[in-house]
Structure formats: C-alpha cells, structure tokens
Amino acid sequence: MEPAAPVTWQNGSAGSLKGMASPYQVRVFGDPVLRKVAKEIEDVDGKLVKLVDDMLDTMYAEPGIGLAAPQVGVGRRLFVYDVGEGPEAIVNPVISEARGEWVYEEGCLSVPGLYWEIVRPKEIHLTGHDLDGNEVSIEADELLARLFQHELDHLDGVMLIDHLDDDTRKAAMRTLRATFIDGAEAGGQASSGSKKLTLP
Ligand SMILES: [Zn+2]
C-alpha cells in the first residue's frame, strides 16, 4: 500500500495528534465492508462515543479530514470530520437537498494514492444528529459539501470509482486490482494518470 500522499482532499488538518498510534487500520479497496450499506444507529451509548474517539484518532493519524465508520470496519451510519474547525461526528446523516455542480479531484483513504476528477453537486443540505442527540442541520458548499457526499457514499457502500464513466472506471479497476488485490508488488504500476491536487 502506498503511503498517504502529503496532500489530498482528505488531508489538510493533521492536527496535534499526527504521528500517534492509530487505533484502527483504515480498510482499503477490496474489503467487503466498504461495499455494504451501513445500518442506522439507534442508541448513542458509551461504546459509540469510544468508536467516535477512535475514528477521530485514526483520521488524524492518516491524516485525513473525514472518515466513515465502514472504513474502520463498522457498518453503522456515522462519520467524523474536521475541516480545521475542530472534530465533529454526525450520526445517521441524510442529504436532503443538492444544488449546482462542482468538479474536484477527489481521493479516499480507502484507495490511498489515487485521485479522480469527479463531478458532484456543489451545495448540499445535511441533517443528522450529534453525539448529544441534538439535531444537526448544515448548509455545506464546495469542499465541505464534497466531504459530506463522500462520507455518505461510504455509508451506502459506494466508492469513488462508481462515479467514473465506463472507460475511466475500467482503467481504474485494473489499477485497483493490481494495487490492492493482486498484492503490493504490483503497486509500482499504480497510476491514475491524474495525480494533480487541487486542495483549496
Ligand atoms: Zn473515502
């Protein structure tokens, strides 16, 4: 597995925890948990709070700016993020509105080192709950909207390659199989041909 690139759209807020031991290994392409639809969370209990803490530590250690529960092997509808304004966790998130279009070169901690230009809505409205059970309602634009859509995808078993056109997806699948399934020795062949980064 390639090391995390120094900059990806998921990077950018390494925080003070960078370098500390990560409680979880982030699951990568080929792990079936990434393809399952995660289940609604019914109770926020001590176990869930601990999960959120461990997910945040894992996210900062990568480093990343977002991480969904399936990425640490937990099939629950939960993600954490920090876009530089402190750690947040959203339970049972829902995107209720989407507007506009925005192209962004997007990467994923579960397909480290690979990036694709992906078009998604530019603005979205996200609702859900925080760990205190309060309702959360966020109007998000550009990077934050992108992050929310990316994490929501993980809760529905959707990965970046699902957003590519047929030809690009076929090429990406060959790279992914070589990199993550046929073994690390093939990793040297990995190239998306699109590694320019456009972090705002
Ligand atoms: Zn991801």
Protein model, in words:
This protein is α+β, with helices and mostly antiparallel strands and 200 residues long. Helix content is 23%, strand content 22%. The chain has three helices and seven strands. The chain has helices at 46-61, 142-155, 166-181, and strands at 66-68, 78-81, 88-99, 102-107, 115-120, 123-129, 135-141. A five-stranded antiparallel beta sheet has the order 1-2-3-6-7. A two-stranded antiparallel ribbon has the order 4-5. A hairpin with a 7-residue loop joins strand 4 and strand 5 (115-120). Mean pLDDT is 85; it is low at 1-18 and 185-200. Bound molecules: zinc ion. The site of zinc ion has 5 residues, from helix 2.
**CATH architectural type of the domain at 32-104 and 120-158:** Alpha-Beta Complex
Structural class: alpha+beta
CATH topology of the domain at 32-104 and 120-158: Peptide Deformylase
Rounded mean pLDDT is 85
Q: CATH superfamily name of the domain at 32-104 and 120-158?
A: Peptide deformylase
CATH top level of the domain at 32-104 and 120-158 is Alpha Beta
For the structure shown, list the relevant keywords:
200 residues; alpha+beta; Peptide Deformylase; five-stranded antiparallel β-sheet; two-stranded antiparallel ribbon; 7 strands; globular; disordered N terminus; binds zinc ion
Quick summary:
23% of the residues lie in helices and 22% in strands. With 200 residues, it is an alpha+beta fold. The strands form 2 sheets. It has a 5-stranded antiparallel beta sheet with strand order 1-2-3-6-7. Strands 4-5 form a two-stranded antiparallel ribbon.
